[in-house]
Amino acid sequence: MTDKVLQGQLALVTGASRGIGAATARALATRGAHVILTARTAKDLEGVEDAIFEAGGTATIAPLDLTDGDSIARLAAAISGRWEALDILVLNAAMLGSLGPVPTIDGTELNRLMTLNVLSAQAMIAHFDPMLRKSSDARVVALTSSVAASPRAFWGAYGASKAALEVLLSAYGEEMRNIGKIRTAIVDPARTRTAMRAKAYPGEDPATVKLPEVVGEAIADLVSNAFETGTKVVLEG
User: What CATH number is associated with residue 82?
Assistant: First the structure.
């Protein structure tokens, strides 16, 4: 699909420097959206931006640490000073953390994991809510995992963070259902060839799982079409 169905729309993707985030940003740009790319590493973001430009799209990089709430506030202020509305927000940034039994979870690491996987998502929603409300058709998409709904041994910390994220976004969607033009959806990418999955399954052959581009295209297709608030998409492995 190469039609510019998102022409004139503004999208923001977190964790856009690699993997699913980068693939989603490229897919949205291909459809005509101007994409704001956020992640910690400017150099990696520049590579994604270059790829978008080479494909005929447009993008703006915004390097920042999402665990710093003040940086999110500054980003929102800068973006709202240049654009009136935000049409698409993709909450992709996350960390896996250490896999292990619940009693052995390190509190310091759990705090970092929850800050990035949950608190930063809430901060993004809070600071960009005014711009989302100004869109005629805003869409907010969050990436989740099967362990959010189906707890798995040794995945307690990561699963809890994704379960919290799902509830958070779903509640926001319900709050907006009758008072604004903001729709929310959750996407479970399932088995995908990412650095996070390689860390979780070091012995797995990467060739046996799908590329991030498959997920990026699915997210771009989702926001390019009508869907009901509360939609959950689970992709095939």
Answer: 3.40.50.720
